[in-house]
């Protein structure tokens, strides 16, 4: 791949427009990670025409042949994982250790999706159970690809979030047009290259790098697109849902994830889990721990256990294996997070540690006595800070956990099975973790939010289901 070409219709091509390029830089030190060609609306049209052609070829390709190509792509993703990890770290500012973990999941994720693409079962319909219908008819369902899938992804997991869309969409037999985040396009292109090098037919895969609002609007409003799979902020997701028209839509959006720590919890274990779950990827994770709700009887012990662990987080050069927390995606984002922490302090909360900024790096923060109704709790922070509030009893703790517009993930620490079972039922979140924080994901599990966190599920089985359509077929043995 020449670094300044677009991938359109599974082929590397020059952009149609005025040949604009963009230098992708490290948020940590501004060093150049690579250069990409920027697509314009002409390229959107070319990609859509190619995708129509590709979708027609790919849906007629037998599942075993699709599997052969995708398994080769998985092998290539495994072989190229160390290089892809360097790219992730260079363009996103996450530590090389985290980036290596992310890249190393690529091959297995493609394999899981590939398997699901071979499992497009239907069902037989007992039509004769319907009064007036006899045994002269046979009914069954057939699962088929949607056609053209538009995948739009954010910056924070530039490999995993791309693959959670590309792999199931391709496995199910769709053509895909991917619009990755403008800040992290190199990883998306490197992964797409694995599929192309594995032998994906012409037309099936395009990657368009460029302005979210221009390319995004052109893609999501086009009637040739049948399915949109979007991961990003709630504001962008709301916009897409307004303009998309009649299409299948999956929205993986923002969050403010809670963890409840009850008096019977293992406080040390809870503090260790929060010291990881609040600060992975500098807090830029949709399932990051943003709020901790403790019983007053254990708040002091919890904070005493948490603060030294957070103090041990080492910020610095993301490419160094000694660094345990990297940079935010831009200095502007870091400034926004710095301001939010300072404002929480000014509004009466206690900033126990952290919050200082240097460029795009914000020191990991613990903020105690946070008002659960304040912006620091209610609005998604997407940065390395945890807000700790208290709740006097089980009911008010659960009400606080549920008390934001979001509902993506939640955790509860308790040794009481009855309370845990009740929490499983009462907490309004797409995933609920008992004795762990929401920052945990196995790639095969259904994954997606409730309320303002979106709708639809990812995870290979769920995504293949959402990226296919069910047809009902009735075979009439007699013509009445
Ligand atoms: P974002 O600003 O919403 O951007 C996400 C993607 O949408 C980018 O590719 C962006 O392109 C594109 N976009 C922007 N405007 C668009 C439009 N009008 N139409 C179509 N696409 C458009 O989100 P972000 O800041 O990159 O990511 C952080 C957010 O993602 C957080 O809210 C986080 O919680 C959420 N997230 C959710 C999950 C989940 O599973 N629920 C997972 C990860 C992240 P540009 O880059 O060119 O602007």
Give your account of this protein's structure.
With 480 residues, the protein is of the alpha/beta class. It folds into two domains: 6-253 and 453-472, Aldehyde Dehydrogenase, Chain A, domain 1, CATH 3.40.605.10; 257-442, Aldehyde Dehydrogenase, Chain A, domain 2 (3-Layer(aba) Sandwich), CATH 3.40.309.10. 39% of the residues lie in helices and 22% in strands. The protein has helices at residues 41-60, 63-79, 81-92, 96-104, 106-117, 160-171, 185-197, 212-220, 234-243, 267-277, 296-311, 331-346, 375-378, 394-401, 417-426, 460-466; strands at 6-8, 11-13, 21-25, 32-37, 124-125, 137-145, 148-152, 175-179, 205-207, 227-231, 248-252, 257-261, 289-294, 350-353, 357-358, 361-362, 365-368, 385-390, 406-407, 409-413, 431-434, 450-451, 454-455, 468-476. Helix 6 (160-171) links the parallel strand 7 (148-152) and strand 8 (175-179). The chain starts with 5 loop residues before the first strand and ends with a strand. The model has no long low-confidence stretch (mean pLDDT 97). NADP nicotinamide-adenine-dinucleotide phosphate binds next to helix 8 and helix 9.
